[in-house]
Structure formats: C-alpha cells, structure tokens
Amino acid sequence: MKNPILVLCAMVISLSLHAQSEETIDSTGLPGDQFNLEGALSLFQKAESPESFEKLLNEQNNQVNNLDLNGDGETDYIRIESRKDGDIHILILQVPVNENENQDVAVIAMEKTGKEEATLQIIGDEALYGEDMIVEPAEVEVENGMDKQRGGPDRIVRKTAQIIVNVWTWPSVRFVYGTAYRPWISPWGWRNYPGWWKPWRPLGWSVWKPARIRYHSPTIRVVHKHRLHKAHSFYKPIRMHSTTVRTRHAGAHANYKIRKTKTTITGPKGRSVSRTKTTVKRSRRG
Q1: Which of 86, 130, 144, 217 is the most buried (most CB within 10 A)?
Q2: Which residues contact 12 (CB under 8 A, 6 or more apart)?
Q3: Pair 124, 108: CB distance under 8 Å
C-alpha cells in the first residue's frame, strides 16, 4: 500500500512544476512581456492629452505597466515625451532607469493623411520586445461572396479585409494636432515623480498574464509592418536606450530570436503563393 504522505508530496511537486511550466510557456522572457502595448493603445484612445495619457499609464489599476527594468523590485514610472515635425507627431514612452540613463519602452507614431484624417501605430522598442512588435487600431470589413465548386453546389463564403483606421476623432489625436498645441515633455524623471504615484511590487507572470487579456479586442491588432515610414524615420535618430537594460537582459535576448524565411508554395493548379514563416526560439524554460 502506498504511503499517503508520499503520494501527497508527489502531487504537490507535480502541481508546482505544472504551474511553473504554465507560467513560462507563453512568456518570451523579454522585458516587453511586462508592458501591454494593446493596453497602452486602449488608454491612449480615451486619454484627453499626452499628459493625461501619462497618468493613465502609471495608474496601477489600469494594469498596463508591470516593468522593472533596473531590477530594484519596484515598478518603473513611464514618462511621455512628444515631438513633432509638420504633420508628424510622435509620443515616446520612456523609463528613467537611473540618474544617467533612460530607456524607451515604445513610441506612438502619428501621421496626418488628410484634412480630418490621421493614422497611428504604437511600436515596442527592440530592446524590450525583440523585433516586429507593432500594434495598431483595427477594423474588419466582412463581405459575403459565392464560391464556385466543381461538381457541387455553390457555397456562400465570408471574405474579410483589414481596414486602416482613421483615428482623427480620438481626443488625444485632435489635441496634438490643435493649432495651440506645444509638444508635451514630462517634467518627471529619476527620483522625481508626481506625489500621487507610488511604485508597487511587479506581479508574477502567472498573475500578470491574465491581467493582460482584458485588453484583447477585435479593434486592436498586432502587425509586423511599419505603415508610418516618415514618423518612424523621424523617431530613429532620437531613440534612447540604456546600457543597464541591455546588459541585464542580454541573456533573454540571446534565447529569443525571430527568424523569417520566405517560401513559395505551388498549389495543385500551378499557382504560387509566397508565405512568411516565423520561427521563435525560446529558452528551455519556455
């Protein structure tokens, strides 16, 4: 007869290992896992200005920021710095890592495309996300069509097309394109934070992962293409990166690489289709 105490211990160990596996299985190990780009875009959509957006990002209850880039056991304060060049606006989301270094977390890029038209993307910084982490507002157009089948009845199929969203009606977008607007540069920095803000201990992945899901929405999508080339070019020379962050997370970057290979697949009717295959390399822990 099996010892009930040994059986219980085995069950506890098994559950613990399963929990650890669940905790890391869909975590890249990169610091970007701890900042929700979809959540940031959702908050920006309802913010009244870059200043109010900064406050929303740093409110614990909104569960967008869980970063601790310098490893001091406390969440980081996200400051906003905006820049403009004609009809191009960018909002840089930045963390003061120490008294000498700042690290960009992401940048919101905006371009005006018409009298009352503007497009927008938020791009996660490579130091935190690796490559190709771009989020944008989404809209899907669905159309019914007929599919001709050989030797059988026609069938109705639903065809979808992704639409580039006009964000001109968003309050913050209208605000930054106003004639009286002057680019907002946060007055806060290392060890100089607003009185209402108190850092908290970052959540573990098993708790943080479910918190991220609240911002999953069909009106927000992850893409791998820069649409706003002028804004992206404007931002690149002023991007800020921290040696401390790069050194601290060098191991995570070594274990996470994205490789794209373009392959051509020939169908039964001789039609060739090009597809992009993305391979993700993760550490042994997931």
Answers
A1: 130
A2: none
A3: no
Distance separating alpha carbons of residues 109 and 89, to the nearest angstrom? 6
- Tell me, letter by letter, the H, E, C secondary structure of the chain: CCCHHHHHHHHHHHHHHHHHHHHHCCCCCCHHHHECHHHHHHHHHHCCCHHHHHHHHCCHHHCCECCCCCCCCCCCCCEEEEEEECCEEEEEEEEECCCCCEEEEEEEEEEEEECCEEEEEEEECHHHHCCCCEEEEEEEEEEEEEECCCCCCCEEEEEEEEEECCCCCCHHHHHHCCCCCCCCECCCECCECCCCCCCCCCCCHHHHHHHHHCCCCCCEEEECCCCCHHHHHHHHHHCCCCHHHHHHCHHHHHCCEEEEEEEEEECCCCCEEEEEEEEEECCCCC
Nearest to 136 by CA among 123, 126, 125: 123
Tens-digit pLDDT string for the chain (286 aa): 555 554 454 444 444 433 433 344 478 889 999 999 999 999 999 999 999 999 999 999 999 999 999 999 999 999 999 999 999 999 999 999 999 999 999 999 999 999 999 999 999 999 999 887 999 999 866 655 555 555 556 565 555 566 889 999 999 999 999 999 999 999 999 999 999 999 999 999 999 999 888 899 999 999 989 999 999 999 999 999 999 999 999 988 888 864 333 444 555 555 555 554 544 444 444 3
Distance CA 23, CA 125 (A): 24
pTM score: 0.77
